[in-house]
Design a protein that fits this description.
Strand order of the largest sheet: 5-4-1-6-10-7-11
Largest sheet: 7 strands, mixed
Shape: elongated
Number of helices: 7
Oligomer: single chain
CATH topology of the largest domain: Spore Coat Polysaccharide Biosynthesis Protein SpsA, Chain A
CATH class of the largest domain: Alpha Beta
Distance between the termini: 97 Å
């Protein structure tokens, strides 16, 4: 049985206008390569395989995909094809044919067009199948068609007229070729063999397959996307920034339509993978990335970086906080300039103060770490108060050790916990203590030298 759908991503071009040593498909928007955005979108179609056509800097491209494919969340199997000579899109697809021929259909996507939407591709495929076409071209209507191949329809014949071949009738046409198509693989394989080199560079154009198919009596269709920006190709750093802006606008509009309050959408940077609940307020210059999930009625102050973290409802993050791989529960909050490193859990209504750093620790329900402290590798109970400047000395130069603090412990300012150490529930620790031994419950621990005041001798 022939599997139905494969995806071919054309990612082999040189991208000379990018003026970069990095392959064009690996330039990033919102922390992910262009290629990753495209593959994530394609994966929603549940294809049998993603075939990535490599060419320029093929080894770097293949290595990057192999190392990050699972992390990008792509489920379809990955296959690679190599275009040894970069002589046109027709030649590129022909190079991939050995990988494609075991599939019934191939959806061809551009490796530099990350804004294409899954719904558009689904509609393209649906249209193609309903019309029983051999090829369907995804088109867009652009404000300025200069540089694009124009879509010309005459007596049910569809042609793509390249910019250099336009005349007074075809030049004004605003419906253009997106560079994305769906083909029946058997039909495509036959006409690829008939392509002839064109133009001064003697290149093989994929667009020439349309005329060849229609000459054989095959049906060619077009499907126009609703938003021309979906077909935006990236060929320069300026276009990279423009694509990022377009993606940001689309993401932020969707969030606002779902009830999220963005104070300044133009200066708020949120990944498409982020989920945010209604009535949550996001202030400007926030960067929220990865698999972050934020609940309802939260408040995120300006200038925060949040990545791969989970917030329950009613969480408040004040300005300039850094939060990575952390979990903040109902009603918890952070003061300005807090830093939460991976595996931090902040329980209900707990508070993290200004200039506090937490790493791989649980801060118990209603507990407070008000300011200027470092808590690492710690399990903290409920109702604990940590004084300013407290430090868990969790690293002995070779290994990390754990500090355990029971419920309702009061820790005086400038306390050092030399881990491993355990503090029982209800204990109190005097300010300036260095704790090296366990403290029983409901006891007062003071571990500091007695103060000595020496008078200054005259002349010294």
């Amino acid at each position: 049985m022939v599997a139905s759908l494969s995806i071919l991503v054309l990612a082999g071009g040189k991208g000379t206008r990018m003026k970069s040593a990095t392959p064009k498909p690996l330039h990033k928007i919102f922390g992910l390569p262009l290629l990753a955005h495209i593959l994530q979108t394609a994966d929603t179609l549940k294809p049998a395989a993603n075939v990535i056509l490599c060419g320029h800097q093929a080894d770097i491209l293949k290595q990057t995909v192999k190392e990050n494919y699972s992390a990008w969340g792509i489920k379809a199997k990955a296959e690679f094809a190599l275009q040894k000579v970069l002589n046109g899109s027709g030649s590129a697809v022909k190079s991939a044919m050995p990988a494609l021929k075991k599939y019934k259909q191939v959806l061809i996507l551009a490796g530099d067009a990350p804004l294409i939407e899954a719904d558009t591709l689904k509609q393209l495929i649906k249209h193609h199948n309903a019309k029983k076409a051999s090829c369907t071209v995804l088109t867009v209507e652009v404000p300025n068609p200069k540089g694009y191949g124009r879509i010309v329809k005459t007596n049910n014949i569809i042609r793509i007229v390249e910019e250099s071949e336009t005349d007074s009738k075809t030049a004004p046409i605003k419906e253009v070729n997106s560079g994305m198509y769906i083909f029946e693989v058997k039909d495509l394989e036959k006409v690829l063999k008939l392509l002839k080199p064109q133009g001064p560079k003697h290149e093989y154009y994929l667009t020439d397959t349309l005329a060849l198919l229609q000459k054989q009596g095959k049906k060619v269709e077009i499907f126009k996307a609703a938003d021309y920006k979906e077909a935006m190709g990236i060929n320069s750093k300026k276009q990279l920034a423009e694509a990022a802006q377009a993606m940001r606008e689309k993401i932020n509009n969707k969030l606002m339509n779902e009830g999220v309050i963005l104070i300044d959408p133009q200066n708020t940077y949120i990944d498409k993978t982020v989920k945010i609940g209604a009535d949550t307020v996001i202030y400007p210059n926030c960067y929220i990335y990865g698999k972050t999930v934020i609940g309802e009625n939260c408040k995120i102050g300006p200038n925060c970086w949040i990545e791969n973290s989970k917030f329950e409802n009613n969480v408040e993050i004040k300005m300039s906080c850094y939060i990575l791989d952390s979990y903040l529960k109902e009603g918890s909050q952070t003061e300005p300039f807090a830093k939460l490193r991976p595996q931090t859990v902040v329980e209900n209504k707990a508070k993290i103060g200004s200039f506090v750093e937490i790493k791989k620790s649980t801060i118990g329900k209603g507990s407070k770490v008000p300011h200027l402290s470092y808590i690492g590798d710690t399990v903290m109970g409920a109702g604990v108060n940590i004084g300013a400047g407290a430090i868990t000395c969790n690293y002995d130069g070779e290994h990390k050790h754990q500090t355990i603090i029971g419920d309702d412990v009061f820790v005086g300012s400038n306390t050092n916990f030399v881990a491993p150490v355990k503090v029982g529930a209800g204990a109190k620790i005097g300010a300036g203590s260095t704790i090296t031994e366990d403290i029983p419950a409901k006891t007062l621990a003071i571990a500091r030298a007695r103060q000595v005041n020496l008078k200054n001798k005259k002349g010294k």
